[in-house]
Structure formats: C-alpha cells, structure tokens
C-alpha cells in the first residue's frame, strides 16, 4: 500500500530490486529481457518526449522536490488534454481556431459534465449510478486477457483535522484488514490464489487529495472479475475497522512513517508550509506519529463514513472484457451502496494573494540545494474548453523553452547550477503554481538564485525566440501524433489511471486522435509572441514564494535571501539570441553492409540476420503496440570486465552518456537536432554487455540507428561532462546515503560479492572519486571494438529495417561474432565471512534496514532457478503474514532470489525488512525461523500456488508485451540457451512440487545462518 506522495513503496521497491539484474538470465524476467530500471512517469509523460531532461536530473529531481508529489506534470496538463478536445465538427475544422466562439453548448455524456466544446472519447463507456458514483469502462487488449481496476475517492490527507491527522492513510490500510464479507487476513490470500501479487497487482495509494485502490486482474474470467468487483465494493462501503485490527495495523503505519521520514519529504513539508501558509497541505505531508499512536477505531470509522461516499467516487475498469456485461455487474454490485451518516466537506485551503513574495528556507545536510521561485494562484477544475487548452499549451511551451535555457547554462565548468525545471503544476486541487526550480551545486545557492531570477526576468521582459518555440512545438506535435498512431497499444493500467485523474479534475477524457486534432487546430496561433505573453501573464511580475534548501543554515536567513534577490534584480538582462540552425552530422555511413545469413526461429517468430561485419540483427514483428518499435543493442562485455575495485563506474555511465553529446554535437545542439523525433540515447551497463535500449517509431528508426552507430564511434568524452559530474556526484552521494533503502539497494550485491564494485556501490562516497577518464578507460574499447547484437521488436517492416541497419551499424568495421557466454572474465565469489556487514545512512535515528542472504547458485540450471524463485516468493508471503500482519514489525518485508549467468556460481536468496536498529535482532530471528520452516516442513499446496500464480501470470503476460521480448530477441543469436529457457519455463514452473521447495530450502538455507547486512544510522555506528 502506497502513499502517492512518495511512490517508492516497500513492495514495488523490491519487485524492482529483484529484477535489477543482467538480462542474461538473472531471473525469469531477465530471460524475457524486461527493462527493470526505475521508471516514474505518468501516463501523460509517457505520451510525450517534448521536454527532455537528462538522466541525472531525473535522479536528482525525482523524490527531492515538491513537484514530484504533484500528481500531474507540466506537460500532463497540455498533452494529456484531459480538459480539452474537439467535437467531430471541430476536428474537421482543424486550423480554424476562431470557430471556438461559435460552438454550440451541449450536455456531455461524461458524468453529467456540461461542456461547450468537448466530445469525449467515444470508445469509453461513461456512467453515473443513482447513488452518484461515476464509472468509466473501456475494452482494451493490452495486455490481452487482463483488466485494470482503479477506484478513487475524493479524500486525502488534507481532509483530516488536526485530531485526525493520518486518518486517510490509516483507512487505506484498513481496507485490507477486514470488511463485512472478507474477514481480516483473508483478502490477500484470496487474491493471491487468483494470481494477484501483493504490491504489484494489489495496492492502494493515499495522496493529499484522493485515495485510490488498485487491482490488476490477470484474467477476465467471471470468477476473477466478480471477486475483483466484490473486493472494491467491500472497500468502498463495508470496512469493519475493528479495534483489534486497528491495533495490529498501527505498528505497520508507524514503521511506514519511520521509513518515509526522509529529507525529501521534510523539504516538501517546508515548501508547502511556506507557499500555502495557513493551509493543511504542508502540515499533512509528514506523518504525525503521535496521532497514529493515539487515533481510535471510532475516529477512523467516523472519517471513513464521512468521506467514503458514492457521490465522491469513481470506478474505472479497462481491459479485455465485454463492456455491456461489465456495466451490468457494476450496477448490480454498487447500486445499493449508500453513504452512512452525514457527508463531510471537502477541504478548501487558503491561497496567498502573492502581493509580496514569501521567503523561506529548509536546512538538511542530506538535501540537494534547491532554489524554487514559484507564482501561486487559485486552482480551478477543468473548464473543458479549447481556449483553456490553448493557454495551457502556451504556458507549457514557455516552460520547455525556459527549462532548455537553464539546462544549457549548466554545461559550463563554472556554472553554479546543475540544471532546472520550469513548469506549471496543479497542487492537490488546492492551488496552481508556475515558475522554476533549479538545483545548485553545493554551496552555490546564491549564484543559482541570481541565475534563476535573471532568466525568469529575461523571459518576462524579452520573451522567447522563434527557434525555441519551433523546437518545443515540434516535440509536442510528434508526441501527440505518435500517441494517436499508437493509441491501440496503450496499456489498460495507463488508461485506467488517466480516467480516475480526469474524474478528480472534472475533466472530460478524450482520445489521442482528438488531442492531436486540437493541437493542430491551435498550433498556427502558438507564436513566439503569444507564448511570451502567456508567460508574462502567468508569472504576473514575480514569484509569490521563494524557497531555498541548503545543507547548512544561511546566515541572516530571509533577509540575506531578500538582499540577494534585490542585488540580482539590479543586473540588466539582454534579449535572448536566436540559435543557429544545426544539421545532423551522422546520417551518411557509406556503403551499406552485406547480409551473409538470414534465417527464422519459427516457433518464437524471430528472424535472425547476420552481416558480413559480424553484426547480429534479430527481429520480431508484433502488433501488440501499433506504431512502436523497441530496440536493444548489446555491445562489449559490460560490467564483467570493469575493474573490481573502482566503484562508481556502473552508476556514472548512464548519467555521463546523457549529458556528453557526440563529437560533432554538444548536448544542446543534439537536443535541437532531435526536436520532433522519437529517439533516445541511453546506455547502461549490465553484467555481460553495455546495453542501449528504448523505443522509437518506424519513421524514426533510421535516425535511432544513426544515434546507435554514433554512440559506438563518436562518443565525445567532453571536459564539460567531467565538470558536470563533479557537481552531480556529491548530490548523488547525499541522495543515496540519506536513507537506508537506497544504501542497501546500491550496496547489496557488491557486499555479497566480497566488495566487488562491478556489482554495486558499497560506499557511496566513492562516487566523488571517479572521473570521466576512469569511465572512458573501462568503456571506450567496448564501444569501439566490442561485438554487437541488435534486437528490434514491434511494428515495422522487416525488410525496411534490415536495409536501415545495413546502412548504419552494418557499415562499421568487423568486430567479430558476439557470444554472451564463454568470455574470459574475472571470477566473482560470494563473501566468505558470514559476520554481519554494517552499512550506515545519514537519515533519522529510528530508520534502518536488515537483510539476511543465503548463498545459492547462478541461473544456469533453469529448473533450479525457478524453484528458487518460488522458494523466495513463498518466504516473502510468510514474512508478510508474520512480520507485517501478525507482529506489525515492518510494512515492507520482502524476499527475492537473485541469479545471473555471467559469473559462475553467484546467486543468493535474500529476505529484507525496514526496521529500526533496536528491532534488528528480533526480526533477524524471525527471518531465520521462517527459513527453517521451509527446510524442516513441506509447504502447503495453497502456499505454493499463491507463490506460483503471480509468476505464472507474469509469464503469460510476457507473451504479448514487446518489452518482455526485447532482451530475448537481442540475444537470439548470441545466446541460444535463452530461447530454450523461454520455451520451457512455464512447463518447469508448473511441475514444481512442495517437495522440490523443501529440497531447495535444505540445500541452500539449512545449516547456515546466512549473511546479515544491516543499514544503521551513522550515530549508531559510533
């Protein structure tokens, strides 16, 4: 169960961690080639690449600034267009913006919303029950045979009085702890038997302004659908909130509050307290531990009955089902739901008038130094008009242009800033903000503040250039055109999430095709002059709040900041200079390469092509996601040949490649060159290869291949990149070390590998020691000489793709034949010393993390590997039952099996929990006791099936997902064993018995206590 403020829940966190392995068979997901790196993007962000920020900026910004807890991004407002669309007549009149004033008022079919100009997505069935509950249904077949349920109630932390602080999140937890027809302790096992994994498929989140319950149904047979609807109906109106259950859950809430008490959250509370004085928003971001300890079941029940009401709720179900039948089920299941007692009011907080800027500071030694200048105004729900949408587009484009300016200024060695983000954001349906957030290099807040003030003033006085506006418009046009072309491939989860957000904002959901038509209609009116005017109107003369976060107190506090702003305002600014046109330098590679082999793997639908230069090209044509092409290029030997004693290379590579550009183009030139094109430039190390992967379109495939070839032959290794890294590294160190979980995630495999830094970062402070020259020494020869394989999966013409590859990667000099196995690499050994390994974090004294790991084996034996996955899954279920549900000791117990096929013999089963230092002995004993259970007693068939079902569903889902095929396809020639693993894994999974689980437990868990890793506060290590 998650708090929307910070999405990195314990459950989701370790599902990711389980998958953060080499794509050469590290786990069953790795066999599929799933890209398991952390992603945090809204549905609408996935629609567009209009505003590109660098990889490291995502790392620094996400989770570290108040904007990350605002549920809709800048471009979500415009590109999602939940609040804007066209009637068919409008769509036919694209380009005639003046027609907006002549449209005819009409009653929208969407939830009774009256709109003058809006036509909803015709493929969605909207309805309102007699009791007032809204619903939205859509048939969608990605993934095939599944369905996503989202149930949202308009109630969040802001609705709590001081005496009720924490009630909204507490009630979300109680939804899983007993309802009228589902006794406490029965819900999760019931759903697990249907194939829903806790965390991945069964979850909830509480925000400041809403609560959402989430089910991902692995199939849409009648029993599963009926169960899913029954569960949501029980949560909606039948929670029992029994006093004894409240007491059991109280410890879990306290544990969660401990884990979430990090500098980023405290900074957010400080920011909103300053920006919205007198409002509950800032007060409710941090959990009130005393109220969690004291709040009673009666108080929770009163809050529940006052706010969980049908007229404040929306149910969205999207998936592979018959809409008519689903609608009947909803009416039958929810038609009798009525609120109990008197409805309580939705909170409306004060918003300052902005006449004088409010200045505030936040101090924490673990926080990056953030400078925020924001203009706040009243929030209003969507007006659903074309005019409103045009204004949102204008502000969006201004934000993109200003962000690009700030980030370009961060490139120089003497720049005080690491970059920034200009944006417009809705703040929990309470206020609206427009402004700039910038990240300062440590100790350089004053110069960064001056830079931000002057660039905002420059934009206000002189506006934006034609080239800046053209670049942003090209990206938006492409993003929306691709979204329309790829509409049939949208995932059910993404659509369902969007629908409930639209309902919260009283917006009318529209189709991607309509969104594109709207943009094309208004685009001619989006001029530099119009954008500049929209910026000035939104900025309204200056910020209403200035918030500075620093590692140490600013002497003089607010007066010093005010003086710095005043001094900056005296500096004259000049008009921006029009950027020169840039021509892409990497489009002609010479004579195309020759194909020397062309075969097919018929049963898997993979075409294998080999070029004369040794390049292996593997293609799988699918219709899962129309208009999308996934790519994965594997080159060199990856981490396996990195130095084993030089930490930070693994972490530095993807960051450096995003900010380095190419020999012929610096990053800002490259950004302009790529405007309006759906391409990416990622490069990350895995155990056995450097991997460049991402998505493009059939039209942009050639350009994407140009970029891949340029990465191999023209990486710049710029001095400016080293200068930027010198500023970024200290911030990353603080991010990692500020709480126990990132310390553990980054260090785990390196610690268990005897300190081998190829696998991780046992000491995050060493990031500051690594240089671009160190990285170049480890990577350049792999890029320049390493054998290559390329996988393409998706919607493309095979022969055209082969021709495009021949004219790019196929032209390169011969590199030899790629083989994933058998390379000479330094061996890796599991740590021999079983004494506890102590790591430290700089967070709160009551935070900590404990793991117990048992040595297993590599992933070479498919059956043994799958048995270990099941054993770990079963241990995880028992940890949840015992540590979470029975004892309330932690909210995030996890167990996972790590295995890979690069380093012989290296693997482990690990059990993990976030617990304070004083509880670690007791929790370690429980973990070992549960492990002993599996060694001494055969597990029940029921427990085995609950562990097996989510894995089975994942295997089945993978057959219809491009991302699940990509890694496999990329290795189809270089590692044929992965093909057999894919063919056989379901049969192996189904054949595992309780005796097999017990045998594996005896082999790997018995007769050894395992290796403990404890992450404790720095003060506790002294």
TrEMBL record:
The UniProt record lists the keyword Hydrolase? yes
Which cofactor is essential here? Zn(2+)
Give the UniProt record's GO annotations in the biological process aspect: proteolysis
Q: Give a yes or no for keyword Zinc in this entry.
A: yes
**Gene3D superfamilies, A to Z:** Metalloenzyme, LuxS/M16 peptidase-like
Which residue intervals define the domain Peptidase M16 C-terminal in the entry? 295-356, 769-949
Q: Which UniProt keywords apply?
A: Hydrolase, Metal-binding, Metalloprotease, Protease, Zinc
Domain spans labelled Peptidase M16 N-terminal: 139-264
UniProt-listed Pfam families = Peptidase_M16 (PF00675), Peptidase_M16_C (PF05193)
**Superkingdom as given in the UniProt entry:** Bacteria
Instruction: Report the GO molecular function annotations.
Output: metal ion binding; metalloendopeptidase activity
Q: Which family would the database say this protein is a member of?
A: Belongs to the peptidase M16 family.
Q: What is this protein called?
A: Insulinase family protein
| Origin species | Parerythrobacter jejuensis
């Amino acid at each position: 169960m998650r708090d929307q403020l910070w999405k990195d829940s314990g459950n989701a966190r370790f599902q990711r961690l389980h998958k953060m392995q080499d794509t050469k068979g590290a786990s069953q997901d790795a066999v599929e080639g799933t890209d398991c790196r952390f992603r945090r993007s809204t549905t609408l962000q996935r629609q567009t690449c209009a505003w590109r920020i660098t990889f490291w900026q995502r790392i620094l910004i996400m989770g570290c600034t108040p904007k990350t807890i605002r549920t809709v991004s800048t471009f979500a407002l415009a590109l999602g267009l939940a609040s804007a669309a066209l009637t068919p007549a409008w769509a036919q009149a694209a380009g005639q913006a003046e027609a907006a004033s002549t449209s005819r008022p009409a009653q929208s079919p969407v939830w009774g919303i009256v709109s003058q100009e809006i036509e909803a997505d015709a493929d969605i069935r909207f309805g309102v029950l007699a009791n007032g509950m809204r619903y939205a249904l859509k048939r969608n077949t990605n993934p095939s045979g599944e369905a996503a349920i989202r149930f949202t109630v308009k109630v969040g932390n802001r609705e709590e009085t001081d005496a009720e602080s924490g009630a909204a999140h507490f009630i979300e937890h109680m939804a899983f702890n007993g309802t009228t027809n589902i006794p406490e302790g029965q819900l999760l096992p019931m759903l697990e038997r249907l194939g829903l994994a806790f965390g991945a498929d069964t979850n909830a989140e509480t925000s400041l302004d809403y609560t959402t319950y989430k089910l991902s149904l692995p199939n849409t047979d009648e029993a599963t659908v009926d169960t899913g609807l029954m569960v949501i109906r029980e949560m909606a109106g039948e929670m029992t909130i029994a006093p004894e259950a409240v007491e059991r859950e109280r410890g879990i809430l306290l544990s969660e509050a401990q884990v979430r008490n990090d500098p980023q959250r405290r900074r957010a509370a400080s920011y909103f307290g300053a920006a919205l004085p007198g409002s509950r928003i800032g007060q409710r971001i941090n959990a009130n531990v005393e109220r969690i300890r004291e709040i009673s079941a009666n108080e929770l029940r009163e809050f529940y009955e006052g706010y969980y009401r049908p007229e404040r709720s929306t149910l969205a179900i999207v998936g592979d089902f018959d809409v008519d039948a689903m609608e009947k089920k909803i009416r039958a299941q929810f038609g009798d739901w009525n609120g109990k007692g008197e409805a309580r009011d939705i909170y409306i907080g004060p918003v300052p008038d902005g006449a004088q800027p409010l200045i505030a500071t936040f101090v924490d030694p673990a926080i990056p130094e953030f400078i925020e200048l924001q203009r706040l105004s009243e929030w209003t729900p969507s007006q659903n008009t074309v005019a409103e949408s045009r204004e949102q587009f204008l502000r969006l484009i201004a934000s993109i242009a200003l962000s690009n300016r700030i980030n370009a200024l961060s490139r120089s060695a003497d720049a005080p800033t690491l970059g920034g983000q200009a944006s417009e954001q809705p703040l929990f349906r309470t206020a609206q903000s427009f402004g700039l957030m910038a990240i300062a290099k440590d100790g350089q807040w004053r110069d960064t503040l001056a830079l931000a003030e002057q660039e905002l003033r420059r934009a206000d006085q002189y506006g934006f250039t034609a080239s800046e506006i053209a670049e942003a418009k090209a990206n938006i046009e492409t993003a929306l055109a691709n979204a329309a072309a790829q509409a049939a491939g949208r995932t059910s989860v993404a659509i369902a999430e969007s629908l409930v957000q639209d309902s919260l904002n009283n917006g009318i959901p529209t189709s991607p095709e309509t969104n594109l038509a709207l943009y094309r209609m208004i685009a001619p009116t989006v001029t530099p002059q119009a954008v500049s005017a929209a910026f000035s109107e939104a900025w309204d003369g200056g910020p209403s709040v200035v918030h500075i976060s620093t590692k140490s107190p600013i002497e003089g506090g607010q007066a010093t900041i005010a003086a710095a702003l005043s001094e900056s305002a005296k500096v004259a600014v000049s008009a921006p200079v029009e950027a020169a046109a840039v021509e892409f330098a990497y489009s002609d590679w010479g004579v195309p390469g020759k194909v020397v082999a062309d075969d097919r793997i018929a049963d898997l639908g993979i075409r294998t092509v080999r070029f004369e230069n040794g390049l292996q090209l593997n293609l799988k044509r699918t219709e899962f996601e129309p208009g999308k092409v996934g790519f994965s290029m594997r080159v060199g030997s990856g981490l396996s040949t990195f130095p084993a004693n030089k930490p930070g290379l693994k972490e530095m590579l993807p960051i450096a490649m995003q900010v380095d550009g190419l020999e012929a183009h610096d990053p800002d030139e490259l950004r302009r060159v790529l405007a309006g094109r759906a391409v990416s430039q990622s490069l990350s190390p895995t155990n056995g290869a450097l991997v460049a992967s991402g998505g493009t379109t059939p039209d942009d495939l050639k350009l994407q291949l140009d970029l891949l070839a340029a990465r191999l032959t023209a990486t710049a290794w710029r001095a400016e990149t080293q200068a930027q890294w010198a500023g970024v590294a200290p911030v990353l160190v603080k991010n990692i070390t500020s709480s126990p979980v990132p310390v553990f995630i980054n260090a785990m495999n390196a610690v268990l590998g005897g300190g081998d830094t190829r696998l991780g970062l046992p000491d995050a402070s060493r990031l500051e020691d690594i240089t671009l020259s160190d990285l170049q020494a480890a990577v350049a020869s792999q890029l320049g000489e390493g054998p290559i394989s390329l996988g393409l999966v998706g919607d493309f013409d095979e022969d055209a793709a082969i021709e495009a590859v021949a004219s790019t990667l196929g032209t390169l000099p011969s590199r030899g034949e790629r083989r994933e196995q058998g390379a000479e690499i330094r061996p890796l050994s599991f740590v021999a010393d079983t004494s506890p390994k102590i790591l430290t974090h700089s967070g709160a004294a009551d935070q900590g993390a404990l793991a117990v790991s048992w040595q297993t084996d590599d992933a070479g034996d498919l059956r043994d590997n799958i048995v270990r996955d099941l054993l770990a899954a079963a241990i995880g279920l028992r940890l949840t039952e015992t540590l979470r549900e029975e004892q309330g000791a932690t909210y995030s117990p996890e167990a996972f099996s790590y295995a890979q096929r690069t380093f012989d013999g290296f693997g482990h089963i690990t059990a993990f929990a976030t617990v304070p230092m004083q509880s670690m002995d007791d929790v370690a004993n429980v973990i070992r006791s549960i492990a002993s259970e599996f060694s001494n007693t055969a597990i029940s068939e029921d427990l085995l099936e609950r562990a097996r079902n989510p894995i089975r569903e994942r295997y089945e889902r993978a057959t219809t997902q491009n991302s699940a095929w990509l890694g496999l396809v990329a290795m189809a020639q270089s590692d044929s064993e992965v093909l057999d693993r894919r063919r056989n894994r379901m049969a192996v999974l189904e054949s595992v018995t309780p005796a097999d689980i017990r045998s594996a437990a005896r082999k790997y868990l018995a007769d050894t206590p395992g290796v403990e890793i404890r992450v404790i506060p720095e003060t506790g290590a002294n």
